[in-house]
Every structure is written in C-alpha cells, then in structure tokens.
Design brief:
Elements: H1 11-61, H2 66-72, H3 89-106, E1 110-116, E2 119-129, E3 135-145
Helix pairs in contact: 1-3
Length: 146
C-alpha cells in the first residue's frame, strides 16, 4: 500500500485562522472607539479649564467690578465697543463677559458662578456625545480668590 503524504493547510486550519483574525480586528475597532471617546472628552475638559482660568484672569484684571461679573455673567450684554478707544471698568467687564460667553458657546456650555466675599466658585457644565453611549453631562468646578 502506498501512503499519501498531505501537504498544505486544511480547511479547519484556515477557518481557525480567520476566526482569530476577525476577533483581533473587532478588538482593535473597540480600542479605536474608546480612544475617540476619551480624546473628545479630554478636549472638552481642556477647553473648560482654559475658559475657567480665562474668566479668573479677567476678573483679577478688573477687581473693582467683581460684583458685576458675578451678577451679569449669564446675562446677554450689549457691547460698548470701547476696546479700541479705552474702556471704563464697567465697560471692560461688559466686554469681558461678551467675549467669554462667545467662547463658552463654542463648547455648548453653561456657567454658574457664586461669590463668598473674595472667593469665587465657577462651575462649567456641558454635554458631550459618547459614540453610541448617548449624551453625558460633564462639569468642571474651580474656586479662586481675587
């Protein structure tokens, strides 16, 4: 009798290799999705942090109008258009609020501010989509003194 020598891959070996490859690719796709979620969240948090520090510096630059900033931060303001000609302290605070509100709209955020003597607490909140997980509400709190 002659023995036949088999060479090459069998169908089962090919199917097992394809199964392993497909599971690996699904895992990589999941990691890519997670990476997109966390980088988008990181960007929003960075923008919120920058906005909070920006408002703190604007208020420190114009401490005489601290109450104006606190009471008018969430109100629509008419621009006095005084930056080129020179602003008084209240006009400067009004311009600061307008510029800051425009930046806050870029992240579709909302702000809440509270004052306790010279201590200011600013809370920024925004909503971000989580690629299939729906909307998640995020917030950033900052407390600073003038």
């Amino acid at each position: 009798m002659r023995t036949i020598k088999s060479s090459g891959f069998t169908m089962i070996e090919v199917l097992v290799a394809l199964l392993i490859l497909s599971i690996s690719l699904l895992g990589m796709a999941g990691l890519q999705l997670l990476s997109l979620q966390t980088s988008g969240s990181s960007l929003s948090r960075s923008q919120a942090t920058i906005l909070a520090y920006d408002l703190a510096e604007r208020m420190r630059r114009n401490p005489e109008q601290m109450n104006f900033y606190v009471t008018n931060l969430n109100q629509a303001q008419a621009s006095p258009n005084c930056l080129a000609t020179g602003c008084g302290t209240e006009e400067l605070a009004r311009e600061d609020i307008i510029e800051w509100q425009n930046e806050l709209q870029n992240i579709s955020g909302q702000a809440m501010i509270q004052q306790d003597i010279n201590e200011i607490t600013l809370q920024l909140s925004w909503s971000e989509s989580q690629y299939g997980a729906g909307q998640m509400n995020q917030s950033y709190d900052m407390t600073f003194e003038l």
